[in-house]
Write a structure and sequence with these properties.
The chain is mostly helical. Helix content is 73%, strand content 0%. It has nine helices and no strands.
Length: 193
């Protein structure tokens, strides 16, 4: 995103220049800088922490292998998020499977089961709403799911999403409209108490 101070942009440009010349430490600094956001973009599409971590690693490998082709027409972060989103969308298409919770994600969900103590009715209602929302999101195509999650969860602008998904701004707006309309239809009548 373009919220970086001028010194940070100059620093990033220098890191990219050094990484293009084979400096793995400079690229390592870029990885540290963008790791959390890359995992977040991947997880927004695949809904699984382990898969998102693997996709993030693959995204950084691809970025490193193709760094010579990065021409600074867009920001480095946008280029990197585009690689990540494309990998995640391709992964979802290949896998064609429902989300399976593993490890800590599964433990977190188990921890949300109603207990005999406290206000379990509200927690159960909230959990059911979250489940309905996840199911509704899974009914969207990977492209529509990516657009709505990048916009609504990650808070990216239309132009940033356009750069990341490598499609025109109008396509982003159209996909977002479709995704919102489809979700509204699926979730009609569902409200949190």
């Amino acid at each position: 995103m373009n919220n970086q101070a001028p010194n940070a942009k100059a620093d990033e440009a220098e890191l990219i220049r050094q990484a293009k010349q084979g400096d793995s430490q400079a690229f390592g600094t870029l990885v540290e800088r963008y790791q959390r956001r890359v995992v977040s973009v991947a997880q927004a599409v695949v809904h699984n922490q382990e898969d998102a971590l693997e996709l993030a690693q693959e995204a950084f490998v691809r970025a490193y292998e193709n760094l010579a082709q990065f021409e600074s027409r867009s920001s480095f972060s946008t280029w990197l998020y585009r690689i990540t989103a494309n990998l995640a969308i391709d992964f979802r298409r290949r896998e064609g499977r429902q989300t399976v919770l593993r490890g800590e994600d599964a433990e977190t969900e188990i921890g949300k089961l109603p207990s005999e103590v406290g206000d379990s009715f509200k927690e159960t209602a909230r959990r059911e709403l979250n489940q309905r929302l996840r199911e509704a999101l899974m009914q969207l195509t990977p492209e529509h799911r990516a657009v709505i999650l990048l916009r609504e969860v990650e808070g990216l602008s239309y132009d940033e999403i356009s750069d990341i998904l490598h499609c025109p701004r109008g396509t982003v707006m159209s996909r977002l409209h479709y995704a919102r309309t489809h979700l509204r239809t699926i979730l009609e009548g569902v409200t949190e108490s």
